[in-house]
Amino acid sequence: MLVHGIPKLMKVINGDFTFPNPLSVGPEASLILTVFAEFICALFILLGYRTRIASIPLMITMLVAAFIHHWADDFATKEKALLYFGIYLALFFIGSGKYSLDNALDSKS
Question: Is-above-0.85 flag for pTM?
């Protein structure tokens, strides 16, 4: 997800807030919410920090991508977003695992 989030983060840094508005919250808010999910939450999952909570915005983003942004497209186009949704759903239920910041921080307390 970082591959998708980094270019969007660069748009925010450069002040370019042109972005689709699939949830009718405004293009600026849509872009910032997407950057939060695709960059911040993806980074948290990569580090294994608050994985279950971080997977929720990513699941929402993937559902918006599949069923709102790509609504008129064929299933093959929606398939990748749905696959990622399934992975984030599994991470939500399974958690971050043995080699994660969550595990390291929980074992110290």
Answer: yes
